[in-house]
Design brief:
Layout lengths: L1 E5 L8 H19 L2 H11 L3 H5 L1 H6 L9 H4 L7 H22 L1 H22 L11 H14 L4 E8 L2 E8 H22 L8 H18 L15 H6 L2
Antiparallel strand pairs: 1-2, 2-3
Helix pairs in contact: 1-6, 6-7, 6-8, 7-8, 7-10, 8-9, 8-10, 9-10
Amino acid sequence: MFPIQTSVVRRHPPVVTWYLIGLNVAFFLMELAMPPAAREQLVHVLGIVPQWFTDPEAARAAGLPGPPWWGLLTSTFLHGGFLHVFGNMWTLWLFGQYVEDRMGPLRFLLFYLVCGVGAGIVHVSVMADSTVPAIGASGAIAGVMAAYYLMFPLSRIVVMVPILFFPFFFEMPAWYFLGFWFLIQLFSGAFSLAAMPDAGGIAFWAHVGGFLVGLALTRPFLHAPRHPRALQGDEGVHFSAWQR
């Protein structure tokens, strides 16, 4: 299922969401311009290699003075291919603009970065012995999706499902789509551990970690509106309770 559109109405321009998308695209273009060897080195140094965090000797053997903690943040601005960056940036645009609209630009920026770091920590904790670098903004974006889930559970999301090469469009409530997405990440992460714990591919546990961090931090990062207003139909019981 690929999300296409939501029913939420935005009130303010999503400046930070635009900025984050532009920054991610700029970093990706920089990666493309680099020679393959330099690109691989960049991914290892600025990405997340879990073993370098859990085993300082492994980090020193790689020529680093210790665990590269900066990777928890810098990894969120690197991507492995066109589909990777497009999928992440589309999802960030689809959900991020409305979360930013409710949190405010600065709160949203900090929320996004904290979710990204939290996602990286969860990934390192679960995949402690992995030597495969993890990159991508999906952990931070998972936190944004969690915030949208809490704030707009009753909104409608239009999704595209390809069936036999033909696109079919369906509409479903946000709580169903995002809840189903989270369960897929959770079960996929569990299966990946059971099958091949040191394999590369999708960092499912970063997605799970980012979503859980987003659920925990959405309420603290919200602020009461300056001008009280009636709730939109897409704003569910979670958000209305926080405005009292």
